[in-house]
Design goal:
Distance between the termini of chain B: 21 Å
Strand content of chain A: 15-25%
Distance between the termini of chain A: 20 Å
Oligomer: heterodimer
Helix content of chain A: 40-55%
Largest sheet of chain B: 5 strands, parallel
Radius of gyration of chain B: 13 Å
Number of strands of chain A: 7
Largest sheet of chain A: 5 strands, mixed
Number of helices of chain A: 8
Structural class of chain A: alpha+beta
Structural class of chain B: alpha/beta
Order of helices and strands of chain B: EHEHEHEHEH
Chain lengths: 233, 130
């Protein structure tokens, strides 16, 4: 069922793209083009919201699945960085990446880790202007097996202690003005946390207003069996 | 002119794809269900097929398999375009023999890149055969 709400929305987005092409071809009214662009952008943000709500409802109904596969983490990081790079240059930020080949292989849910990294980097870019965003990955071995730690540190506006409390709750952007100014659905971090926990790890944050924030995810290098067992149930 | 067969049951999606592909210089034919799509592919031998997965009669997986198993259509590249953004569906589609996979909502430029890549491979193979 999950794709059903998206079907009509796909038509709204697709036809607004066709109209934009039509207007461009006919060298039409720029004011009209602007209006169609607004329809298009609103459609896209509604689509993002629906995707997030569907993800969240999967989490809440216990239907969340973690699908393990083996992959090279630094290659995944490279892939994510390639996607986010244009956002970095647009917001005038420098993106530093420290991900040595020694972080090696993971056997976990590649897609969820990819989305998580995109989400954290996207947030960092949104809330930082002409600053530095730094992604750092490392691997450690403890009594409870091997762990991968990835942190995303920015020099952005930061988050107050009070806001940090609510940060991972659904629909609770730190501030109402945030949604207007920065966009976003207010679900990204709630989903990120649920995913990290599903994969046997967690996400944490430390922040200082005016100085910047660091989000850190810590995951087992190999997805624990119980995560898979729950997924199958 | 290269011909693309769009197999898609949703009328608006079919219309959108048809118009946008035509604008980019393709000849587009379309089918509303799997059986009709398979028959059309056999009759018209298009250069490429865009296949929806959820069709009213046979599934896009089955239609893909039928095309790939039949001598007259096995060489036609197929891109499965599916609303199921699940890794399992992707694997299932590839197992059924499709050449590439994309998800809805269709990002048209991304889809075009995949179409051109497959058409170019086809062309290179033909050159080699000659």
């Amino acid at each position: 069922v999950s794709h059903e709400p998206r079907t009509p929305l796909n038509a709204i987005i697709g036809y607004s793209e066709i109209l934009l092409d039509d207007i461009a071809d006919a060298k039409g009214d720029p004011a009209q083009a602007l209006d169609v662009q607004r329809i298009h952008m609103s459609g896209k943000s509604l689509l993002a919201l629906i995707d997030d709500v569907l993800d969240l409802s999967k989490i809440e109904s216990g239907k969340l699945e973690a699908v393990a596969q083996s992959f090279n983490l630094s290659r995944l990081v490279q892939e994510v960085v390639a996607v986010i790079q244009h956002m970095a240059s647009k917001s005038g930020n420098r993106l530093d990446v420290v991900c040595p080949p020694e972080v090696g292989q993971m056997h976990s849910d590649r897609n969820k880790i990819r989305q998580t990294l995109l989400n954290l980097l996207c947030n960092a870019m949104k809330f930082t202007a002409r600053g530095v965003v730094r992604l750092e990955a490392s691997r450690s071995r403890g009594e409870d097996g091997e762990w991968v730690t990835i942190s995303v540190k920015d020099t952005g506006i930061g988050i107050s202690d009070q806001q940090v409390q609510k940060l991972f709750q659904p629909f609770s952007q730190a501030d109402e003005k945030i949604a207007t100014q920065f966009g976003g659905t207010g679900l990204g971090l709630a989903i990120t946390r649920a995913w990290c926990r599903k994969m046997g790890g967690d996400v944490s944050v430390s922040s200082e207003p005016g100085k910047g924030s660091t989000f850190t995810i810590r995951l087992p290098a190999v997805l624990p069996d119980r995560a898979l067992a729950t997924a199958a149930a | 002119m290269l011909t693309i067969l769009v197999i898609e049951d949703n009328e608006l999606n079919r219309d959108m794809l048809t118009r946008r592909l035509s604008r980019r210089g393709f000849r587009v034919i379309s089918a509303e269900c799997g059986e009709q799509g398979v028959a059309m592919a056999r009759a018209e031998h298009p250069d490429l097929v865009l296949m929806d997965l959820r069709l009213p009669d046979i599934s896009g997986f089955d239609a893909t398999m039928q095309l790939k198993q039949h001598d007259s259509t096995h060489d036609i590249p197929i891109i499965v375009v599916s609303a199921h953004a699940m890794e399992t569906h992707r694997q299932q589609a590839l197992d059924a023999g499709c050449d590439d996979y994309d998800t809805k909502p269709v990002e048209f430029e991304r889809l075009l890149v995949k179409i051109h890549r497959l058409l170019k491979m086809e062309e290179d193979q033909m050159r080699q055969a000659i």
